[in-house]
Structures are given as C-alpha cells and as structure tokens.
Fold this protein.
Amino acid sequence: MLKLISEAISYIKHRIGDFEPEIGIILGTGLGGLVSEIEVKHQLMYANIPNFPISTLEFHSGKLIFGELAGKKVVAMQGRLHYYEGYNMKQITFPVRVLKMLGISQLFVSNASGALNPSYRKGDLMIIEDHINLQPDNPLIGTNYDELGPRFPDMSRPYNVNLIEKACAIAKKQNTTCHTGVYVSVTGPNLETRAEYRYLRIIGGDAVGMSTVPEVIVANHMGLPVFAISVLTDEGFPETLQPVSVEEIIKVASEAEPKLTNILKELILHL
C-alpha cells in the first residue's frame, strides 16, 4: 500500500510542481459542476496516475482538478469510485489516501442520495452528521500501516462538528433548505425495494446512497476532518414510491447543485 501511494504521489507532484492543495473535494453523481468555480491550475486523468482506479461511469469524468476556490488551494476528484463497479474497498479509498499524503488538511464530500425521512423532499440538501455502514466490506481490513493511521480508529465523530455548524448557518443565511441527518451506505447498483426503504428508515436512516462511507472511514483513519453533504434526488417513501431512473437522479442533482456549490464555496472561504 505504501509503495502504491508513493508511486502515485511521485507522478502527481512531478506534474503539479510546487502546488500544495489544502482541501480535498470529492464530487458525487451529477455534481461535477463545482469544477467551473475552480480557477484550474492542473488537470490529471485518473487513467494516467499510477495505481489510480478509473471511474467506469459515463457521468463521472475521472479527473483530478488542482486549482483555487474561494481563496484556497484545492484538489477536486471529478468522479469517484464505487463498490458496485467491481473495485474493492482499498481501491475505492486509495485516492483519499493519496490526497491526504499530498497535504490536504480537510476533506469535503458530496453525493446524490435518496430521501428516507418523510419530512425531506427531492431537491433538498442534507448535511451528513452520522452514518450507518451497510457495505459488505471495510477498507481497513487487512494489514494496518501505522504510518497511515491506528489499527482501531475511533468513529464517534466521523463528521466534523464545527464544519457542520458553520454550514448550517451558511444555508440558513442563504435561505436554502438544508437538513442534517444520518446517511445509510449500501452497495447498489439497484435502488431499494419498498421493504428495504422501510427497513432503512426504521434503523435510523434519513437518506440512502451508494458511496461516501468508505471514503469517510479512511479519512478518519488518517486523522482527516470531514464535511459531507447530500443532494436528495429521489424519495424513498414506501407508501408513495415511484419508479425512478438514473437520468432523473442526475437531472435533480444538477438542478440542485448551485445550492450545494454556494454553501461549499462560502464554507471554504471562511475556513
């Protein structure tokens, strides 16, 4: 693992020179538009970075974007990896380890997810304050490298409380409907049945998606503060459940993205 990370970092540093990112950003499905707000300095294709997994989804670009956003040096992952693509958890989270070793001190994560809480509506935003992990594997299984983090990392506060409070205040000031809640991570790629949506709500979920939690586990393992936010793209309410397509999900995410972008920009500005 350490050798693989070192090879990726060596390649990246050779191409970005003395650029040192402070903040890492992972952009979820339909949420790549934030890149247009970044003053881009360098772009690297995942396919060209040693040991980097390649996004197999047509709506995920698969680029590392280095530049400036709200006065801060950032690196954005335009396209993330998912378990349902066939990657293992170490591959999915490999980019987070690389970003941390490149020097980022905070990680911002976005995703598209389905609403479970009946008081939420599609198009709303939800800041993740905690999660339930229903993925069948864990990125920390196997050999632990003390250089990366402890064998048994604490997960009592996986999402940074200070960043959550700041983001909630920003959303209120911007008159944006933004909830705080619990995110449930499942494998996908199928969406859930009525019974599954009912179960996920019963166990405490406010939203459900197919990503984020493995990345957050690894970020916590490496001592990296995390802020995560979801765009609620569909409604998983068993009594009124309607069929939904990926195209519809991407459309709702794209329409809601300006609200998410405005919150992230101001949050980064005031770090």
Q: What stands out?
A: The CA atoms of residues 171 and 263 lie 6 Å apart. The mean pLDDT is 94. The helical segments are 2-16, 89-102, 161-173, 194-202, 213-221, 246-269.
